[in-house]
Amino acid sequence: MSSAVTREPDRLEIRAPQTAAVVALGTGLIGMAAGVWLLLSGGTASLVLGGVLAVFFGVGVVRAVLRLVRGRPLLVATREGIDDGGSIVAAGFLPWSEVGGIDVLAARGGGMLVIGVRDPETVLSRATPARARVGRTQAGRLGSPVVLPPTVLPVPAAEIAEELERLRPDAV
Questions:
Q1: Domain definitions of the chain by residue range
Q2: Which residues pair with 111 in a beta bridge?
């Protein structure tokens, strides 16, 4: 497994690769610089566009820096359950009793990790309204609101699914 994956006998921790945050930071800095340049070049249109660019990319820079500094795990699994921080709904802690099937669905760029939940509405009630809407759409299309796309996973989804099944208690 990759360095973004910490595997212990009773714990699995998956972190996002830092590449995406570094690219977002670089892109944000370039966009902010363009906005500042437009602000300094004068003219009404340049001031408006420069202000919009500086604010938009400034928010992106702050978010990228926070992701680099804080770096919350995408997924932590133990014998008690799964703590989801990487799906669109960021479901939080799901005890194994709430988890149904763990599947890997084919997707462009690799497999999607789909963590089935027994009661999707309970999970969606813990999400923000916007995330819950997206989660309902995902649940309709993919069978669960808890889906981690291949773009955020540092290793193949099948490898993670195998590790999750290893941690699942036999009683469930």
A1: 19-70, 79-167
A2: 106
Residue-wise pLDDT for 16-73, tens only, equals 878 878 999 999 999 999 999 999 988 888 999 999 999 999 999 998 898 888 778 8
Query: Strand, coil or helix: what is 96?
Result: helix
Q: How far apart are CA 57 and CA 148, in angstroms?
A: 26
Q: Which two tokens stand for residue 122?
A: 């309970």
Instruction: Please list, in sequence order, all residues whose beta carbon lies within 8 angstroms of the beta carbon of residue 33, skipping any fewer than 6 positions away.
Output: none
- Alpha-carbon distance 121 to 140, whole Å? 12
User: Which amino acid appears at position 170 of this protein?
Assistant: D
CA angle 89, 126, 119 (to 5 degrees): 85
User: Cβ contacts of residue 163 below 8 Å, gap of 6+?
Assistant: 7, 12, 77
Bridge partners (DSSP) of residue 145 are none
- What DSSP designation does 107 have? E
Cα separation, 96 vs 81, in Å, equals: 5
User: Looking at the predicted structure, is the pLDDT value of residue 99 above 50?
Assistant: yes
**What's the whole-number average pLDDT of the chain?**
89
Mark out the alpha helices in the chain (DSSP H runs). Answer: 19-41, 44-70, 120-124, 129-142, 157-167
